[in-house]
Design goal:
alpha+beta, Aminopeptidase, OB fold (Dihydrolipoamide Acetyltransferase, E2P), 4-stranded antiparallel sheet, 21% helix, binds zinc ion
């Protein structure tokens, strides 16, 4: 059973040593809040894992202010800006060490700033968690149909719990995602520890919208209600449960200017052109046409006008089967 916790709301920061020319004994102060009361699970919310993804950061700052510990049963740990230096630079990666927070877990105590943050989260925060919700958006280079995300898991009971939590979040799409490369991700260390994990991808493009922010804020509250940390039922939303089977990823083989032919969220047929890439050095050449490898929804698109070989141009999701 859960232990009883005294009523508390602590709003503070993690002290991250940052020795540099301007401040030899300096540090960065990265906000973290803990709101606890009574008995119940510990839920960890993180935003800003990539610094230029803002829905989670805004929703979690609002949660710090609005969550009354008297309403809580359990403990809520809130880290709105997980890659804090990257957020300050409006960037995906840390400007200090180039670190991608979601590729360095479990981190390193005597590593770079990004590795040190990951090490602390992995060693000091995650062991407290009964559930972790990591709120991403597409950032500078991608746009997503707003989605809550889980992964295929070997443990059938945990798969079911993740599916229920993902649906409770209430995004328009619930995606059972196959990652291109899961090494070093926060997702992976949480799931490997047998802890409930839900992620999101809510829009993108280094900006937010009222629609995606509403999805983030409602989703955060829904998760707390779903896990009985807050009273009441989650706001019921229709979530289309999808997956990314073989053929889902459309990878670019050219460098050039990309012309989208399909809007994100639209349904496409197998073989339907979704974009073409123009060779700006050779305007007489016909553009390279990129087609959907499978029928489904264009869930993700590459965002900047310039694309290069190896970039993810688009991803097609299909309704989950089995
Ligand atoms: Zn991200």
């Amino acid at each position: 059973m859960w232990i009883m916790r005294p009523l508390a709301k602590q709003v503070g920061w993690l002290n991250i040593p940052h020795s540099r020319d301007e401040s030899g004994w300096g540090a960065m102060h990265m906000p973290i809040s803990v709101i606890a009361n009574g008995s119940g699970p510990t839920v960890v919310f993180t935003g800003g894992n990539h610094g230029d993804e803002y829905e989670g950061q805004i929703a979690l700052m609002k949660l710090v202010r609005s969550l009354d510990p008297g309403e809580v049963q359990g403990r809520v740990i809130i880290i709105p800006h997980l890659n804090y230096p990257a957020m300050r630079a409006n960037a995906r990666l840390s400007p200090i060490d180039g670190g991608n927070m979601n590729r360095v877990f479990p981190g390193k105590r005597d590593g770079t700033i990004t590795e040190m943050i990951a090490h602390y989260i992995n060693g000091a925060v995650l062991p407290l968690a009964d559930a972790v919700v990591d709120i991403h958006s597409g950032g500078r280079s991608m746009y997503f149909e707003p989605s809550a995300i889980m992964h295929k898991l070997d443990d059938a009971a945990m798969y079911q719990r993740a599916m229920e939590a993902m649906k409770a979040f209430g995004a328009p799409v619930g995606l059972v995602l196959t990652e291109l490369d899961s090494a070093g991700m926060l997702d992976t260390v949480v799931e490997d520890a047998g802890t409930l994990f839900v992620s999101t991808e809510l829009g993108g493009g280094q900006f937010t919208s009222p629609r995606t922010l509403e999805i983030a804020e409602t989703g955060v509250a829904n998760i707390l209600k779903h896990l009985d940390v807050l009273e009441g039922e989650p706001v019921a939303r229709e979530t289309r449960v999808m997956e990314t089977p073989d053929g889902a990823y459309v990878i670019c083989r050219d460098h050039g200017i990309v012309e989208p032919l399909v809007e994100v969220g639209a349904m496409v047929d197998e073989g339907q052109p979704i974009a073409q890439v123009h060779d700006y050095e050779n305007p007489e050449r016909a553009p390279s046409v990129y087609r959907a490898g499978i029928a489904g929804m264009l869930l993700i698109r590459h965002l900047p006008g310039i694309i290069t070989r190896g970039d993810c141009l688009g991803v097609i999701a299909t309704d989950l089967t089995g």
